Amino acid sequence: MLIAFLLFLISLPIQLIVALALRIQLGSPLMFRQTRAGLDGRNILVPKFRTMSDARDANGDLLPDAERETRFTRIVRRLRCDELPQLWLVLRGQMALVGPRPLLPSTLDGFGALGKLRNSVRPGLTGWAQVNGNTRLSNTEKLALDLWYVAHRTPRLDLRVLAETIMVPLRGEIRDDSRLNAATEWARAQFGASLDAAAKANA
Q1: CA 179 to each of CA 53, 60, 111: distance values in angstroms, whole numbers, following the listed order
Q2: How far is C-alpha 167 from the geometric centre of its chain's CA atoms?
Q3: CA–CA gap between residue 90 and residue 84 (Å, rounded)
């Protein structure tokens, strides 16, 4: 908790700068809030800085994501600054610094029993899947990494994840095949075909 408190204090000037810049570029509201599944599937309201405008075409439909971003908001997303408000949830005990990322309740329900196991720990600001490929991963790989983390988590592993999270914006998202293979083989040995079935349910 001390680490979370220090990170929260350090992030406050950054959050203020981001908030002011977003207010100038996008107006209000500054935050985007969405209900996600927390510990044991209990709903939590997860905030993020809003990084897209509500620009629409002639038919009233939202423009593609790339056209609703600005150069600044792309940087905010790349550096993960849009997720800094979630540190408040860490201080409140609804999230952890490290853990499986919070999912939509419907997505978690689609994982069935494996979803319950995945969320038997608090969701994290960052996680094992996020430092091992994140958007470059398949649903099966993400679920395998999350389940592996739940079974093997230690303070030392959490510190490694935090350290590697700092490097992700600098190096980009890189798949670590050795870790992916280890997690996937372990998960298939533990859960068999249920792993792929759960992942496909949310494809």
Answers
A1: 37, 45, 22
A2: 16
A3: 10
Measured CA to CA, the distance from residue 19 to residue 10 in angstroms comes to: 15
Q: What is the pLDDT along the chain (203 residues), one digit of tens a residue?
A: 788 899 999 999 999 999 999 999 998 899 999 999 999 999 999 999 999 988 888 887 888 888 888 999 999 998 999 999 999 999 999 999 999 999 999 999 999 999 999 999 999 999 999 999 998 998 889 999 999 999 999 999 999 999 999 999 888 899 999 999 999 999 999 998 888 888 777 76
Give phi and psi for 97, each to the nearest 5.
-65, -40
User: How far is residue 154's CA from residue 160's CA, in Å, rounded to a whole number?
Assistant: 10
- What number of helices (H) and strands (E) belong to the chain? 10, 4
Residue whose tokens read 């700092």: 166
The owner of tokens 């372990």 is 186
Exposure string for 38-74, b = 16+ CB within 10 A, e = fewer: bbeeeebebbbbbbbbeeeeeeeeeeeeeebbeeebe
- Location of structure tokens 């419907």: 106
- Rounded Cα–Cα distance for residues 49 and 18 (Å): 8
Output the six-digit token pair for 20.
């002011």
Counted residue by residue, the chain has a size of 203
